[in-house]
Specification:
It is built from 5 helices and 11 strands; from the N terminus they run ααβαβββββββαβββα. By secondary structure, the protein is α+β, with helices and mostly antiparallel strands. The protein folds into 2 domains: 39 residues, no CATH class; 121 residues, Lipocalin (Beta Barrel), CATH 2.40.128.270. Strands 1, 2, 3, 4, 5, 6, 7, 8, 9, 10 and 11 form an 11-stranded antiparallel beta sheet that branches. Strand 2 and strand 3 form a beta hairpin. The radius of gyration is 26 Å and the shape is globular. The protein starts with a helix and ends with a helix.
Length: 175
């Protein structure tokens, strides 16, 4: 019986010591806001958000991406209402996807942030003219890409008069 009381007493004293160490200046937790402790960002000001940019590699490009915004050398690309404007990159560098009407496929090369989409093959389905024109602009933009990066979870592909911004397709399924 006495041993239990001593063990419980020692454990209680150690526990209070640990709590005291957290509340003094060592941990600084007591002086931090809930957002600082949890890591949540509450600011709406874009300049407060740290941008993390990494050159594109096959590894960080691998996956299924949905076009969020785009511009080809010829025209803006409209991703709205085009649920199939996607890019699927495989670990071996092959790619596939859809331009809104037709499927596409090919091989891409990535070296030191430089990105090149080889000739793009596609199916030849008949679709309404606006969809085909948008698809043509999307495929043209992919062929004009020369560089890529991943920034804040987005895949950004650029080239002369070209910019394609993709979000992970998994974001659509998490809604």
């Amino acid at each position: 019986m006495i041993k239990r009381v001593v063990v419980i007493g020692v454990a209680s004293i150690l526990g209070l010591g640990v709590l005291a160490g957290c509340s003094n200046g060592a941990g600084e937790l007591s002086n931090m806001s809930e957002e600082q402790v949890s890591g949540e960002v509450q600011s709406e000001d874009p300049s407060d958000i740290e941008t993390v940019e990494v050159s594109a590699t096959i590894e960080n490009m691998t996956g299924t991406w949905k076009l969020k915004a785009g511009r080809s050398p010829e025209s803006e690309i409209n991703p709205e209402g085009q649920k199939w404007l996607e890019l699927i990159v495989e670990p071996d560098g092959s790619f596939s996807g859809s331009g809104g009407c037709n499927g596409m496929m090919g091989k891409l090369t990535v070296e030191a942030g430089k990105v090149s989409f080889g000739p793009i093959g596609s199916t030849k389905m008949a679709c309404e003219e606006p969809i085909l024109l948008n698809e043509h602009n999307y495929f043209t933009a992919l062929e004009a890409v020369t560089e890529g990066e991943v920034a804040n979870g987005m895949l950004i592909l650029t080239g002369e008069d070209t910019e394609l911004v993709f979000k992970p397709a998994s974001e659509d399924s998490q809604s």
